[in-house]
């Protein structure tokens, strides 16, 4: 394009400079906005993750307290010592229903499931997570997430039954399902 007048040339240069400067400003604002948004998202994720872990630990502590309460029950310990499976199942069911546990197991010291509230008629069988029992032996209690029954995740707590020596293990579990995730999502502020 050929400009005849100097003022047209000056206007073209200023318009060109204005376009270049606006493009640079737009690029800087866009990059700054992304950095700010990424920083905010990172902080929210870190805070949410800490809250989620705290809630999970708090939930584990409550489950351990409930399991220890059952483990300290004299009648329950007597039923373990005598091998009274009907009483064991009754106590496990009653205690499990009070705390809404979906799984209540009594596991012998050699790792055999002696009583199971979900499958009461099954004969003793090996506990499917020996690493949980090994961890519980070293720390006196343990909790974790494990997959049971059709690949459904459960939050499990393993606590020893002592009288004063270890008699057996109580394993209680709660299914990690949509309701569980929704509760933690509401409390932590994260999509779970």
The number of helical segments is: 5
The radius of gyration over CA amounts to: 31 Å
Assembly state (oligomeric): single chain
Count the strands? Answer: 6
Walk across the major sheet and give the strand order.
Answer: 3-2-1-6-5-4
User: What ranges have pLDDT less than 50 throughout 5 or more consecutive residues?
Assistant: none
Helix amount, in percent?
A: 55-70%
Beta-strand portion reads: 15-25%
Q: Quickly give the structural class.
A: alpha+beta
What can you tell me about this protein's structure?
It is a single chain. The protein is about 60% helix and about 20% strand. The chain is α+β, with helices and mostly antiparallel strands and about 190 residues long. Strands 3-2-1-6-5-4 form a six-stranded antiparallel β-sheet, sandwiched between helices. The two termini are about 60 Å apart. The mean pLDDT is about 85.
